[in-house]
Amino acid sequence: MVRFQESHRRRGSVAVEEHSLVKKSRIPLQLQIVGRYQFLGACVKGRKERIDQISKEITKLWENKLNFPHVSDQVIRAKLMKVLKVYDECVKRGKYDVLNELFDITKVNGQWLSSEDKRLYHLQKESKGQVGYSTGQVASKETIHPSKRRKVQSGTAIPSTSQVLSPTDSGTESENSKSKSEDDEDDDGDKDDDEDTQKKTRKHYRSKFAVNMVTSSGVSTKKAAKICNVLSQQGIDIPTPSQSAIYKSTFKEAAKLKKEMIEQLQMEQWSLHFDGKRIDGNEYQVVVLQNERTDVKLDALRLKDGKAETVVEEIAKLIDEYNLWNSIKMIITDTTNVNTGKRNGVVVKLQRMFQLKGVTITQFIGCQHHVLDRILRLVMDEELGGDTKSPNIEYPFVSELLNKYDELKDKFVNGTVEILDKSGWRDDMKFLYHLTRVFRFYEEQRNFPLIHFQNIPNMSNARWNSRAILVILAFILIPEARKNLEKVCRFISYEWAEHWFSSQKYNENDFKNLSDVLKPYKKALQSFKNHWKKEPSVIDIPRSNQIAERAIKVMQDLYASCRKKDKLQLRFILSNKR
What we know:
52% of the residues lie in helices and 7% in strands.
């Protein structure tokens, strides 16, 4: 039988590499890679096994001899496959000149042990692999960059490019003297070289890509730094800035965005939204702008307290900063006492300031969701009774439902008919919407459909719609309570739900329709008339403050991940990019 090496001679004259690539002192040529591949064919038959063997040798050469950072193993194998594919094409043409190039796996933007290593790499590239090491001298700690010395603290000998550089293994003395003279010149200007190297490194570690991840995808600066490092290790040419660099650049980007906002926001008309939240003993007020086109998270103000005077003072400073007195045409906020007080409420004081500035008094619209929440509470109190002393406002069925919820669900015989309800709502509101459709189905069919039970939400006196969930759940799971709960469930599932789950935009018929429904409930009707605005909106947007509530959720998430609380405002502004 014909020997393996003899069969390959027919394919072309490529010198066989008998010795391991680890023994070389410079970057090998692609021809040498092919030669090594052919030699290994005598003992390693599989193509994959030979590529793995060459990959290991190449990796050791870069780590133990050259001291160059290298790309990942996966990328190395892909490069080897590409070389072999080119070789197959060369065999067909009978020309091998294209393989007379370096097989380079250096990761140029990786971690270098010293600036001399980097100079050696460029020398090898320029000389096409004709320059390599001449001795086995070990690097001393003085010749290694300070940031890399931890790699040699263990006492392990690491070769360095501080060794004398030589030409090829059979090189000439003239080339050696040339490289020596170049080294002498470098010694005269070490300081300049180090500065140039640092400048080049900074170019490689630009943080724009990482900052875009933080601002557009919502990842933290720490995760952005990790993602860049992982991608770089996989062979993708991407900058790998540190977390601190990304952190600083993020705030620079926020300051730049804020400057652009100051110039652009005053060109449009806006509705002003604000809402407060107490976190870790500190009072915060989020301020948001909205119009028919978009919404903008303006700021997250940290206040000394939640009094009306303090809120008005800080919001006025913010309007001054952005020069928005002529651009704000409407105010939408919650109908709490601090906001809607007739004499000293936040809204009244802000309207006075607009008037003093010579601007038309802004239109005030109380959040319709809060008005609906208020009348729901008054209707339920009148129908169900219960202790009305805050903060524990309960109804007779609540404790039984909360304590035995899992047990009641197990006993309940669920239906089989699926209700298709594409509400677009999420979390608790999606559950409430589903329950209102379940009750409607029961009213029409006198049996229950398939019910998708969820966990009972947290009870809040500020959000009475959570009690609406309890009422319908009690009607479903506690048969003996259905007679007392049917009337209020009907109110919740029909008239109230129709308005609650609407777009909340102005509709001239809403006031009349709700007034007719609330006639049996005097307190609810009076509250409705006091807070529901009948005039059309100046800006055609939802008459709800939910946009500020969503902004509070964004602020809470940022607060939890923000190391410097005084930088929260800038990060809040950056959230506009998401």
